[in-house]
Amino acid sequence: MSTDRRIVLFDLFGVIARHQLPGALGKMAALCDTPADAFTTAYWECRPPYDAGRQSAPEYWAAVLHKLSRPADADTVEELRLTDIDSWSRVDEEMVAYVRSLREVAEVALLSNIPADHADAFLAAQPWLYDLDHLAFSGRIKAAKPDPAAFQHCVAALRAVPADFLFVDDREENVRAARAVGMDGHVFTGRGELAAVIGAWLPTRN
Questions:
Q1: What is d(CA 69, CA 63) in angstroms, rounded to the nearest whole number?
Q2: Are 51 and 142 contacting, i.e. CB atoms less than 8 angstroms apart?
Q3: Can you give the pLDDT at residue 4?
Q4: Which end of the chain has fewer beta carbons closer than 10 Å to its terminal beta carbon, N or C?
């Protein structure tokens, strides 16, 4: 049951922010003197606990380097951490402007799978995010999409009900998970299509 509120809940990467910088994984592989394909496998296989706030950055990088049979000295770990953060730092300025404009007609919130230290860096670089109605970063709330707990956190934090939300993400599995908890959902493919979907979803003004 809706409370007549309209809350657009955005994913970050692949919607408002760009996906990882091309070539970044190869650069990080070179930092620890390992083949790019092996590094990429270890990077993603070890990622879920880090994204969900169950590992610190040093613990995550130690796990990656252990999988690669490479030493996890503090200097290498920190260089990898900073290179990784930088690789996820780009935004789509047109989408940023669009998201900010939506606050004139709806509540706007963010739900992102992002480690806590990445979130800190992203907020420092993009202070406009503080203008949104709620920010939910997986590394801080200890739940990552598509875990239902991530969506339920947003519902509780905004004192809303699931039917109040339109969730926007570029990954089908995350949109399915949002719909399973009772939200509306849209798989993002571009700003124009999204604007049409949101325009139809918002109540008609008299």
A1: 10
A2: no
A3: 81
A4: C
Rounded CA gap, 139 and 116, in Å? 4
Residue 178's nearest CA partner among 127, 142, 186, 197 is: 186
pLDDT at 23: 97
Residues 6+ apart with CB under 8 A from 156: none
In one-letter notation, the amino acid at residue 169 is D
pLDDT at 206: 45
- The two most distant CA atoms of the chain are separated, in Å, by 65
Angle between helices 172-180 and 148-157 (to 10 degrees): 60
What average pLDDT values come out for the chain (206 residues) when binned by 10 residues? 83 98 98 96 98 97 97 95 98 97 96 98 96 98 98 98 97 98 97 96 73
DSSP string, the chain: ---S--EEEE-SBTTTBPPPPTTHHHHHHHHTT--HHHHHHHHHHTHHHHHTTSS-HHHHHHHHHHHTT----HHHHHHHHHHHHHHT--B-HHHHHHHHHHTTTSEEEEEE---HHHHHHHHHH-GGGGGSSEEEEHHHHT--TTSHHHHHHHHHHTT--GGGEEEEES-HHHHHHHHHTT-EEEE-S-HHHHHHHHHHHSPPP-
Two tokens, residue 103: 């606050």
- Reading the block at residue 145, the tokens are 């999409």
Half-sphere exposure of 189 (CA within 13 A, CB side): 5
